[in-house]
Design brief:
By secondary structure, the chain is of the alpha+beta class. Helix content is about 35%, strand content about 20%. The chain has an 8-stranded antiparallel β-sheet, covered by helices on one side.
């Protein structure tokens, strides 16, 4: 997916998304956000929808529910307290909205009876442009690399850059990586919108083409299970990749309900950022799907 909007608009979307993340416990109306960021509310909603496939109301409710999911699952908060924390005065209406969004009752989240990557649905389902994906059946794939954490300015780029520099040093790659012989693979191990962003985990790795056992002793392993994957393309800066991913959820996965596997999104960085203009960067995004899709 190519970014069709000017860079200033993409940056505005990032700023608004971060503001919503940081202030989701407060009232966040479209009028308020438009005034705060000096954009007409009609223009703002259109820009956000164009890039993410969701309007601001959908995105805000999704964020509220993802925060509630985290509070219930990982911070041992009661369902009632979580509902109040994200602005619901009625636990019953919260439970209905939560169940509609995730397809899971909040009390089951409390009991840890949920998949690792529970996917939020959409609040509304207006006509949206459907995206197409290349469907691939891939064997088990072995990666070597390093784990880190930190989602900063809407991307894992900062931590990834640090980790790949350490990997290059361990492998004594003074000239950098060979992007054809050493495919660079990044994996968001947690949703940065559901967890504390500075603690959100990431794996930076290189695909091993000659077997799972040939790993450098200073590096860690990560194995991608064999199965079917839907591959999409993201063109442009890494800090707008979340917009593409959200658009894929809105415009593709909604038409393939229940057919995603419980697994993280895999990112293959196709070209070298030190030699490629940011707007020309290409990233392949792999979404795990059921074999019967």
């Amino acid at each position: 997916m190519k970014n069709e909007l000017p860079e200033k608009h993409l940056d505005t979307i990032n700023l608004i998304a971060q503001y919503i993340y940081d202030n989701v416990e407060n009232a966040l109306s479209l009028d308020f956000l438009a005034e705060k960021f000096s954009v007409s509310k009609y223009h703002l909603n259109r820009l956000f929808f164009t890039q993410t496939g969701m309007n601001l109301g959908e995105f805000t409710q999704r964020r509220r529910m993802e925060l509630a999911y985290e509070l219930i699952r990982s911070q041992d908060m009661s369902v009632i307290d979580a509902a109040l924390h994200v602005g619901y005065g009625s636990p019953a209406s919260f439970s209905r909205a939560f169940s509609k969004l995730f397809g899971i009752e909040p009390n089951k989240v409390k009991l840890k009876r949920t998949p690792q990557f529970a996917l939020a649905s959409l609040v509304k389902k207006p006509e949206r442009q459907q995206l197409t994906a290349e469907m691939l059946d891939l064997p088990e794939q072995c990666l070597q690399g390093l784990y880190g954490k930190g989602f900063h300015q809407q991307t894992y780029f900062k931590v990834a850059q640090q980790l790949y520099a350490e990997i290059a040093e361990h492998l004594k790659l003074s000239q950098g990586f060979d992007f054809e012989q050493q495919p660079l693979i990044g994996i968001s191990l947690e949703s940065p919108w559901r967890t504390e962003q500075t603690e959100s985990q990431f794996f930076a790795g290189i695909k091993l083409v000659d077997g799972c056992n040939n790993r450098h002793p200073a590096l860690e392993s990560h194995v991608l299970a064999a199965g079917r994957w839907a591959r999409f393309e993201h063109f442009g800066p890494y800090n707008t990749m979340w917009q593409t991913i959200l658009n894929i959820y809105a415009n593709w996965t909604e038409h393939h309900t229940g057919k995603l596997r419980d697994g993280a999104i895999v990112q293959h960085y196709v070209n070298d950022i030190s030699r490629t203009p940011m707007k020309e960067l290409l990233t392949h995004l792999y979404f795990p799907v059921e074999n019967n899709t």
